[in-house]
Amino acid sequence: MNDKITNWTSADDAMVENAIRRGATRRDLLQMLLAGGIAAAAGGAIFGRASAAFAATPVSGGSLKAAGWSSSTADTLDPAKASLSTDYVRCCAFYNRLSFLDKNGVTQMELAESIESADAKVWTVKLRKGVTFHSGKTLSSADVVYSLKRHLDPAVGSKVNAIAKQMTGFKAVDPLTVEITLVNPNADLPTILAIHHFMIIADGTTDFSKANGTGAFVCETFQPGVRSVAVKNKNYWKQGGPHLDSFEFFGIEDDSARVNALMSGDIQLAASINPRSMRLLDGQTGVTLSKTTSGNYTDLNMRLDMNPGSNKDFVTGVKYLLNREAIQKSALRGLAEIGNDQPVPPSSIYHNADLKPKAFDPEKAKFHFQKSGLFGQSIPVVASDAATSSIDMAMVLQQAGADIGMKFDVQRVPSDGYWSNYWLKAPMHFGNINPRPTPDILFSLLYSSDAPWNESQYKSAKFDSMLIEARGSLDQAKRKAIYGEMQVMIAEDAGTAIPAYISNVDAISSKLHGLEANPLGGMMGYAFAEYVWLDA
Amino acid sequence: MNRHVLYLVFGRVLVALVTLLIVSFTVFAATSMLPGDVAQILLGQAATPEAVAGLRAAMHLNDPAILRFVRWLAGLATGDLGISYANNMPIADLIGSRLGNSLKLAAATTLFSVPIALTLGITAAMLRGSLYDRIVTIISIGVISVPEFMVATSAVLIFAVYLKWLPALAFANEIHSFGQMLRVFAMPVITLSFVISAQMIRMTRAAVIETLNTPYVEMALLKGASRRRMVLKHALPNALGPIVNAVALSLSYLLGGVIIVETIFNYPGIAKLMVDAVATRDLPLIQTCAMIFCVVYLLLITIADIIAIMSNPRLR
Question: Going by DSSP bridges, is the β-strand pair A336-338/A533-534 parallel, antiparallel, or unpaired?
């Protein structure tokens, strides 16, 4: 008789700790533990650790070395152009936003004292007093107007140009008040301003070889594609300021090199660990894992305006044929939450939990395929490494299809150029969508009739009018109800199958504390540098 | 003799310049054929048609390709390498420190591997057929066959992760003393030496054996010359041509071909810079990197040729 637990990993620890924080009862936990074949005794140790993490008090000082997973010569300190995780981390360290999302997905004020509106169309932003840039200049309304307005200039090449376009009027009312006028009412503006690209820079800035922001760290060195060194901002406006004295950040693209660097102690944080490396890290003392499930997902898109997606039965058949559990367990190695074919993730306050994911049902799928008249034909599916795990997902689908006599021809294409050549274009292909803070952004980007990335060419007049109605409403309960219904419409009618929301796992040294999950993404929504501390 | 060599060098440089021009044009044409341009890549998923069109106009990407090529070439002629599309920094600044890093790593590897490889190659040829020769042959063939990512990753796992003797990453900026340099360079240099030495050992051994089989070496032996004198004085000078060529070819790999070592040790060198440049379709940067690789290659080959000629009395 062997009492030792052999298949318990930190991923399971994280799951249980998470449940404890969410307020799971003792009975819930016991069920969870028993489901994993774990004796009740193991529970005690995890309880102890979850509360220890809360009791710890920050220590000041020390210098942190952290590595992201991507870095290139296109690295930039211009928040408008930020595209890689490395850029987001640096922008969060050097700049501040008007608002940000906390770990519960609720909008909090940062540089703004308040962002208010009576009609959701004209918004008044009141700024904090006494905030200074690294250059010594005091933050004023002119800086905010400049920072926001530049996203409209095509020469800037802003990544959020499409979102910023709805802001048409910018007025500096007085040095600490800005008035923003929108084309149409949008109740989400305070959350939209929490997007990383809307960091506030000093009026007139055009040179981004160094960062001049109001953030917790001052930029000492920045070499694109190599590294950045940040030192503590002594005049930081937030009480307490950052705990670290300095913070070096760079990208290590090779997954095993990143893990090795963490295990050898060269770095204290390795972002976004491949699920394959997790078992290796689990055996190591001195390394802990931090899991975040935000809204990142890989979806299978069937264009409704092309064969075979134009056949509704075919689309429904594919949704039944996707073995979501196999995708979650094997393709994503358990580091995912099962998705219900719509883009609003469980971490969002607007997620419709009543909408159940379609169960894996080959018989039903076969019925629909036969009804569609496409049964027995070979259907091409384009997959690529560019869309995370899409090749594995395609294999899961292909296998399930083979079992019922439906043939899927998986065409594997290179990552390079995938987004411009195949995505949105091929009749049946995979996409990968990064988390967005609000359902409104997701829907208007991906599902409204005029959406630029309407992956399945879903068009519905009812959906469009509901989108506008929810956007202009300041009534929270009403919006939740509308968004809930829209999620059902997408799950049923759109040609996008979303099997799972993919988790991000960061590996950190056990000397590093204070890192919490955040709905905006891994590494605490990229803003960890300001909040973490190192053991002396 | 001097005039002959000067004439030769001049001819070589001229050919090299023409080669460079052809290479730059080829690289430019090939890059233009890649799907997507820098505006699309920079905007990534956010590349709506209007955003791409706006950025293209702002970056002058709508000009005819040949005009951009001529503009870049004219800039190069005046010593201006241009501005990177991806981040608006002067190319010279981007390349400067990274070229230095690459050269440092290449120099350290050369100093370490060339003497070892030549010694092993020559001694193996002298003791041809012996146990020593067989061991050297087996090891060098074995080392050729193991891919460098395997060598590098295993070295990191053993020396950095388990033994914790050496850092897993090569931080070029942390070198302030000779000791630190040894620590930082140890693993990258050994990995690269594995890759390039094997070929040099094999080529050296083959070239020396070939000359040892010639009648004049046999004559030297019959005259009563010592074995050492026979090899070093009679055989080696005649084997030098193929040897330096093998060395030059191996060394040319050290600048552009070390992408795997740069990636695994996160060493900011020029090979990774070029890969980045291709990924972002940053044409001026691709061009400049290609030029540098080409110049170094031509330089090494030309030096090897000149040494070969100088060492051969018949060609002198």
Answer: unpaired
The token pair at A497 is 């199958």
Contact A326, A398 (CB under 8 A): no
303-342 of A, contacting B, C-beta below 8 A: none
Chain A nearest CA to B15, separation (Å): 33
- Cβ pair A396, A325 in contact under 8 A: no
Q: Could you tell me if A200 and A97 are in contact, meaning their C-beta atoms sit under 8 angstroms apart?
A: yes
User: Do residues B303 and B284 lie in contact, with contact meaning Cβ atoms separated by under 8 Å?
Assistant: no
Total-model pTM: 0.79
Burial class (CB in 10 A: 0-12, 13-18, 19+), A207: exposed
3-state secondary structure A291-322: EEEEEEEEEEEECCCCCCCCCHHHHHHHHHHC
**How far is Cα B13 from Cα B9, in angstroms, rounded to an integer?**
6
The predicted-structure confidence for A263-320, as pLDDT tens digits, reads as follows 888 899 998 887 777 777 776 778 888 888 878 899 999 999 988 899 999 999 999 9
Question: Cβ(A217)–Cβ(A203) under 8 Å?
Answer: no
Residue B243 included in any domain: yes
Q: Which residues of B198-231 are buried (b: 16+ CB within 10 A; e: fewer)?
A: bbbbbbbbbbbbebbeeeebeebeeeeeeeeebb
Residue B281 near chain A (CB below 8 Å): no
List of residues 6+ apart from B276 with CB closer than 8 A: A72, A73, A74, A225, B86, B282, B285
B314 within domain boundaries: no
Report whether A79 contacts A197 (CB < 8 A). yes
Give mean pLDDT, residues B267-295.
86
Structural domain of B212: 86-309
Q: Is the dihedral of CA A164, A167, A173, A177 positive or negative?
A: negative
Q: What is the pLDDT at residue A1?
A: 39
- Contact state of A73 with B35 under an 8 Å Cβ cutoff: no
Cis geometry, peptide bond prior to residue B167 (ω within 30 degrees of 0): no
The three state secondary structure string of A468-513 is HHHHHCCCHHHHHHHHHHHHHHHHHHCCEECCEEEEEEEEEECCEE
- Domain annotation covers residue B216: yes
Tokens 């290590």: give the residue.
Answer: A252
- Which residue, among A100, A189, A168, A107, has the nearest Cα to A472 in the 3D structure? A189
Quote the number of domains for chain B: 1
The secondary structure of residue A36, as a DSSP letter, is T
Is some CB atom of chain B closer than 8 A to the CB atom of A415?
A: no
Residue A69 per-residue DSSP state = S
Side chain identity, residue A507: A
Q: Report ipTM (2 d.p.).
A: 0.75
pLDDT in the model for residue A36:
44
Evaluate whether residue B151 is within a structural domain.
yes
Per residue, the 3-state secondary structure of A347-412, as one string, reads CCCCCCCCCCCCCCCHHHHHHHHHHHCCCCCEEEEEEECCCCCHHHHHHHHHHHHHHHCCEEEEEE
Which residues touch A293 (CB under 8 Å, ≥6 apart)?
A336, A337, A345, A346, A347, A501, A502, A503, A504, A517
Residues 6+ apart with CB under 8 A from B25: B69
Instruction: Decide if A236 contacts A33 (C-beta within 8 A).
Output: no
Residues of B with Cβ-Cβ distance to A75 under 8 angstroms:
87
Question: What is the domain-level CATH number for residue B273?
Answer: 1.10.3720.10
